[in-house]
């Protein structure tokens, strides 16, 4: 008699919203976008936001959806979920969580335990309400607290973390600050206005700016 193996379904959604507030959503998109831009030219760095990660084949109840995760050694591309056994068994190396006002200590402790058990190398937890950053790095097989965390540079990302009175700032290896989409648009408009003023000055000097 031939036994029919039941197909295991790995849902692409956990039924939970991506964010519980506008500020949490803004931070998720800012960090995800910043990491994506940082590694845009590397085809083997995969960055995702709120994507379900299943570390164990056959266990569809063992999963977590990090707010942002970065995976080195895996190609870019669309995924419904991150099935680790289909990704050369490479777990995400870096994870970010943005704490929501509704997140209990028990919930966050469970996430830390999950990331500790399933191989995360660096874990960053930011609370935008309290402007508090907690971070862990895997040392000798366990996630250990990073102290001090301000001015810490991620070994994997090369990103520097700075805590100010206004909150967390992240800096790329080239010194450029992570910006939100609105900040990027404001920067683009400022540069466009500056270029137009320069072009107007050149025209006053009877110089065609398009000829330069």
Automatic annotation (TrEMBL):
Could you name the domain of life of the organism this protein comes from? Answer: Bacteria
Is Ribonucleoprotein included in the keywords of this UniProt record?
no
| Stretches assigned to the Putative restriction endonuclease domain | 43-148
Q: Which residues form a coiled coil?
A: 181-208
Among Pfam families, the record links this protein to:
Uma2
Q: Which GO terms describe its molecular function?
A: endonuclease activity
- InterPro entries reported for this sequence: Nuclease_put_TT1808 (IPR012296), Restrct_endonuc-II-like (IPR011335), Uma2 (IPR008538)
List keywords of the entry alphabetically: Coiled coil, Endonuclease, Hydrolase, Nuclease
Q: What is this protein called?
A: Uma2 family endonuclease
The lineage is: Bacteria, Bacillati, Cyanobacteriota, Cyanophyceae, Oscillatoriophycideae
């Amino acid at each position: 008699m031939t036994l029919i193996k039941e197909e295991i379904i790995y849902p692409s959604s956990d039924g939970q919203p991506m964010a519980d507030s506008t500020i949490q959503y803004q931070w998720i998109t800012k960090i995800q976008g910043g990491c994506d831009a940082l590694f845009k030219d590397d085809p083997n760095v995969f960055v995702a936001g709120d994507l379900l990660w299943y570390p164990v084949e056959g266990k569809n109840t063992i999963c977590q959806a990090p707010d942002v995760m970065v995976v080195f050694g895996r190609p870019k591309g669309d995924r419904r979920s991150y099935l680790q056994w289909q990704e050369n068994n490479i777990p995400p190396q870096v994870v970010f969580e943005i704490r929501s006002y509704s997140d209990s200590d028990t919930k966050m402790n469970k996430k830390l335990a999950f990331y500790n058990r399933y191989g995360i190398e660096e874990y960053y937890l930011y609370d935008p309400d309290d402007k508090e950053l907690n971070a862990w790095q895997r040392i000798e097989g366990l996630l250990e607290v990073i102290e001090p965390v301000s001015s810490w540079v991620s070994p994997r990302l090369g990103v520097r973390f700075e805590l100010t009175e206004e909150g967390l700032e992240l800096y790329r290896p080239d010194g450029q600050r992570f910006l939100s989409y609105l900040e990027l648009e404001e920067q683009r408009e400022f540069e466009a206005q500056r270029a137009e003023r320069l072009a107007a000055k050149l025209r006053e000097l009877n110089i065609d700016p398009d000829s330069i």
